[in-house]
Specification:
alpha/beta; 390 residues; 6-stranded parallel sheet; 7-stranded parallel sheet; 2 domains; Rossmann fold; 14 helices; globular
């Protein structure tokens, strides 16, 4: 059996699907170790995998621009100190195959040097938003250059340097890849829960009021106490119940929850969404696909990640949700609009009411659910990875 090393970026939507793929590989008799920043370690260990801490993750952060919320992330993803430690870890681990997060230029830039089969993984749409992918990668590398370090290859060169590029969404949901991207394989969404996300007893029993889930990013770079509070304020006094999960980056004690809201750090989303009338989300690919898998429409308030405004617009285009103004994404323009807090809360309240009152949103979401039925992205990805061993 083979030994795999996953060079990881533990962003909010990146690590859980990686754990899902690793679970299947382990079930097939392989071993998988994850190397990544310190924040990754407890999450990987809780899932039962070996975690290798890249202790140089932030060693050069003082050289990166201090005025960006992405400074620490950019340091981890691009700095020479991390690249050097990646080389050391690969040498020490001697894996049979290397898996790279598609957002990790410091590691991807060395893929050809390791003399092993290599796989890059993207956990969202690619060709529907390829220019945003390029813009985000260029922005990260630009921050590296502002820090006085040399340039790295662009996105196309980084991904073309790998034997396979796995995309954990449906091909039917993305745009078709150009002919020169023959290494791309679509495997379908990987909707893995982390161990902290456990089934949760809700306080309302079998009350007939509509149920909603509100869940924003679990990435520290996207922490927004105000966004969560606006969501809670928007549903106050509406005839529904709301479960809000804060993902460990906002303490429920920091929030003022109305009587019809139940706020927890973590909860398993599937049992809640299966009963829900709608989901209020930041537009992360995993949350959006999970909602669609259950045929549940959504209200999307995009965050900083480069795909979230795209996903918000797509949900509106498909008639499966309503897109709200969001944050300006890193590396590209978004749909952020200057509005007062009061107007933002009122707009979100009206969007929630519209979703609940308009049957076509659920009907359209159920059409997408039919397309996702039976798709096992983790198993499909594992097969693609194993195929490279031969």
């Amino acid at each position: 059996m083979a030994r795999f090393l996953w060079l990881n970026w533990s962003g909010g939507g990146n690590l859980p699907p990686g754990l899902g793929i690793a679970r299947v590989l382990t079930e097939h008799g392989h071993t998988v170790a994850f190397a990544g920043r310190p924040e990754m370690v407890p999450r990987v260990e809780a899932a039962g995998f070996r975690a290798i801490e890249l202790t140089q993750a932030y060693a050069q952060v003082d050289k990166y621009p201090a005025n960006s919320p992405m400074s620490r992330a950019a340091c981890y993803l691009t700095s020479p100190a991390v690249a050097e430690q990646v080389r050391d870890v690969v040498k020490a681990e001697a894996p049979d195959l290397l898996i790279f997060d598609g957002m990790f230029p410091a590691a991807l830039s060395q893929a050809k040097d390791f003399g092993k089969p290599t796989v890059a993984v993207s956990h969202t749409f690619v060709f529907r938003m390829i220019e945003r992918w390029r813009g985000t990668t260029n922005a990260l590398i630009g921050m590296r250059q502002q820090s006085g370090f040399g340039a790295l290859p662009d996105l196309d060169a980084l991904w073309h340097g790998c034997d396979r590029v796995l995309v954990t969404t449906l091909a039917e949901f993305d745009h078709a890849p150009p002919t020169e991207w023959e290494s791309v394989r679509y495997v379908g969404p990987v909707l893995e829960d982390e161990k902290v996300a456990v089934p949760t007893q809700l306080p309302w029993g079998n009350d007939s009021a509509p149920l909603a889930l509100m869940s924003f990013s679990t990435g520290f770079e996207q922490r927004s106490l105000d966004k969560v509070q606006r969501g809670l304020d928007a549903i106050a006094d509406l005839p529904l119940h709301l479960v809000a999960t804060t993902g460990g980056i906002v303490d429920p004690a920091e929030l003022k929850a109305p009587r019809n809201a139940f706020v927890v750090n973590y909860a398993a989303h599937d049992p809640i969404i299966a009963r829900a009338a709608l989901v209020i989300t930041h537009g992360g690919h995993g949350t959006a696909m999970r909602a669609l898998k259950h045929g549940v429409p959504m209200v999307v308030m995009p965050g900083l990640a480069h795909d979230q405004a795209v996903i918000a617009a797509l949900m509106e285009e498909w008639g499966t949700g309503i897109a709200m103004p969001g944050d300006v994404p890193f590396g590209g323009a978004g749909n952020a609009v200057a509005v007062s807090r009061e107007d933002s809360v009122e707009a979100l309240r009206k969007a929630v009411q519209k979703i609940v009152a308009t049957p076509s949103y659920r009907a359209n979401a159920k059409q997408r659910a039919a397309m996702l039925a039976g798709v096992d992205g983790a198993a499909n990805a594992a097969r693609e990875i194993e195929a490279l061993l031969t």
